[in-house]
Amino acid sequence: MTRPLLLGCIADDFTGATDLANNLVRAGMRVVQTIGVPAAPFDGGADAVVVALKSRTIPAEAAVAQSLAALQWLQAAGAEQIYFKYCSTFDSTPAGNIGPVTEALMDALGCDFTIATPAFPDNGRTVFKGHLFVGDALLSDSGMRHHPLTPMTDANLLRVMQAQCKRRVGLLDFATVARGPAAIRARIAALKAEGVGIAIVDAVTNADLMQLGLALDGMALVTAGSGVAIGLPQNWGIAPAAEAAALPPAQGLAAIVSGSCSTATNGQVTHFIRHGGAAFTLDPLRLAAGQDVVAEALAWAEARLGQAPVLIYSTAAPDAVGATQAALGTAQAGELVEQALAAIARGLVARGVGKLVVAGGETSGAVVQALGIDSLRIGGQIDPGVPWCAATLPGGGRLHITLKSGNFGTPDFFAKSLALLDAVAA
226-235, 272-281, 329-338: which range is least confident on average? Predict the structure, then answer.
């Protein structure tokens, strides 16, 4: 008998999808992440399915169309609740895509109210009085103000969301959340009576998210970062369990590819190199000049694979990224790097890599598509928001892969993630 699908999730990028899936697994759900909308119907093998899209920075109309296609598949699978997941730094522009996708999903579901909160305290993302903090800094004072595609210069989420939405945006504040589910539901009723359709929700601790989760029981659509996910499984009587994160043993060589230019990933690349890691820098200007940097990188890696993990990266500081974008254009620079790293990842796997770390949302999307991966089984957490995953490749081989959001992870993430996987395999 096919098990019912409890939670159907739509994520706007691939690392965000694994971030969400990771929190659901930690809370005890069995989770499968699909790469794009599946062609086959749901087979009943999970409590939650996360459909990973690459829609964060594409035109809003295309993001809406992809998200509605994902919704249709999840509804056909019988999902009891829908979850639209975006980044914990609320990555978007005044044109979207968070607002347009949220409102399109509300329209399709006949939903007159939903919440929005990117809060994820485990990763230092908190919302207070409607303002998003990254650690101790407002979003607008964080490294996200330099993001090459979605620079975030306003920490007031009510303003950011209202600029993208036709519905009125309101606030469900910290004092209400602290009083628990009954107070939250009462405030939602009051907001709806005032004509509010979307409420930014304050949350500064995991306890806030657990209380919020209880109040969201039965809400047709939830929109959030990954943090709210820790509070939803309890509504189905699900509790944390080790077996939810079980993966098959890992095999093969180890490699890292990094395309993110976030502050966190810059630190991780620097840490890896300073501690003796072998690293190859991918130069976008050489790619643009037609030089075969992909072949050069793979030849460099082949000589070192098996000795220790290798890192191939295009990660750079904001001033260097800006100079490259000025020379090539933002879109062309990003596309060149994504496709080169995807080709390199495919070449590394062909050379025996079975343990692959990928850093950066856009890079992760390009890599999994290049490898022909159509779904991932979600395993244990490396750092908050980042799990190991297992994939079956088109040729039948197995790959363990982690897709790290650029902003996530400790400075030693690269070495730590591979050491953790080896320890589990042992």
Answer: 329-338
Work out the percent of the chain whose per-residue pLDDT is above 90. 79
Start-to-end C-alpha separation, the chain: 35
CA distance 131 to 154: 9
Domain span at 235: 7-239
Domain CATH for 43 = 3.40.50.10840
The answer to whether the pTM exceeds 0.70 is yes
Please report the pLDDT score of residue 317 as a whole number. 64
In this structure, the answer to whether residues 196 and 288 fall within a common structural domain is no
Report how far residue 179's alpha carbon sits from residue 187's, in angstroms, rounded to the nearest whole number.
11
CB-based contacts of 316, cutoff 8 Å, min separation 6:
261, 266, 324
The backbone torsions φ and ψ at residue 257, rounded to the nearest 5 degrees and listed phi first, read: -125, 135
DSSP 39-98: SSPP-S--SEEEEE---SSS-HHHHHHHHHHHHHHHHHTT-SEEEEE--TT---BTTBSH
Task: Based on the fold, state whether residues 320 and 374 are members of the same structural domain.
Answer: yes
H or E stretch including 264? Answer: helix 263-274
What is the tens place of the pLDDT at every residue in 315-355?
Answer: 776 676 667 777 767 667 778 889 999 999 999 999 999 99
